[in-house]
Design a protein that fits this description.
Strand 10 (170-177) and strand 11 form a beta hairpin. With 254 residues, the chain is α+β, with helices and mostly antiparallel strands. It has five helices and 13 strands. The strands form four sheets. Strands 7-8-13-9-12-11-10 form a seven-stranded mixed sheet, with helices on one face. Strands 1-2 form a two-stranded antiparallel sheet. The protein is globular. The protein has helices at 21-30, 59-79, 97-113, 126-138, 229-253, and strands at 2-3, 10-11, 13-17, 35-37, 46-48, 53-58, 84-85, 89-93, 149-156, 170-177, 182-188, 191-197, 217-224. Helices cover 34% and strands 26% of the residues. The protein has one domain.
Length: 254
């Protein structure tokens, strides 16, 4: 038994998934129990059943996050019940946005404290990490949203060259340093979650539909993969490494 990273009590710990395991299971079911692991580092691409789990939380804390926000968010975005879709956006109505906020905070916090290779290199500021922990521990919706801004894009591929990354692509949290804020991003089932810390200033909010805990709707604009320069660079580097690996294997076999 070890100390739970959330409640601080000495208990048996579960294999905690910083990114909900449901996303990985959906991919693994399509690919004989494995998915292609893309790394932001120089690691070679390879098929893996790694879902970034680590013994972080006790059963009670794990279940609290799972039932408190994860299942709700997964079902809301996966099945889009009651959503109105257009060529420009997806509008979700009757949304408990406080659970969306909690979902994002839970993913970033667990990824930040996890020693799993999948989250190598991702780390929140120590003070923010502590604030996020206390927020999750309190099981309340009371958090200063001046600390961050959240907005979500539905990614699409206008050139149909990245279609295999649509719903079966997971990108673990990464951080891009901007002039006035840090932008943390992760991708699950074709949705790009953006969390800026601190919150965006007014001049940076043009055409951005921010999510607030007291809102009851979400507007998720459709956004081309190619508009996300860092994401495209990451994918291009991963594809290049895979091609180089194949070329090297072909040379060895000749």
């Amino acid at each position: 038994m070890n100390k739970c990273r959330l409640c601080g009590l000495i208990k048996p710990l579960l294999d905690s998934h910083s990114i909900p395991n449901s996303y990985f299971k959906a991919i693994f079911r399509k690919n004989n129990g494995k998915g292609v692991l893309l790394s932001a580092h120089d690691d070679p691409n390879h098929k893996s059943s790694n879902s970034g789990d680590w013994k972080l939380l006790c059963k009670e804390c794990e279940q609290e996050i799972n039932t408190g926000c994860e299942k709700y968010v997964i079902n809301k975005f996966r099945y889009k019940r009651g959503a109105i879709e257009s060529s420009h956006s997806i509008r979700f109505s009757n949304v408990d946005c406080a659970k969306i906020v909690r979902f994002c905070v839970a993913i970033l916090w667990r990824a930040s404290i996890s020693p799993a290779d999948l989250f190598r290199g991702f780390k929140l500021d120590g003070q923010l990490e502590s604030i996020f922990k206390n927020y999750l521990k309190s099981n309340s919706n009371n958090i200063d949203e001046k600390l961050f801004s959240i907005y979500i894009y539905k990614l699409f591929d206008p050139k149909d060259v990245l279609n295999k990354f649509d719903s079966s692509f997971i990108m673990a949290p990464v951080t891009h340093n901007r002039k006035d804020f840090d932008l943390h991003q992760f991708v699950v089932e074709g949705f790009l979650f953006n969390i800026s810390t601190p919150s965006l200033r007014h001049k940076d909010r043009n055409n951005i539909n921010l999510i607030k805990s007291n809102h009851d709707f979400i507007i998720s604009p459709r956004r081309s993969w190619f508009e996300e320069k860092e994401l495209v660079k990451f994918l291009a580097a991963s594809v290049h490494r895979e091609q180089s690996k194949r070329e090297l294997e072909a040379l060895k076999s000749n």
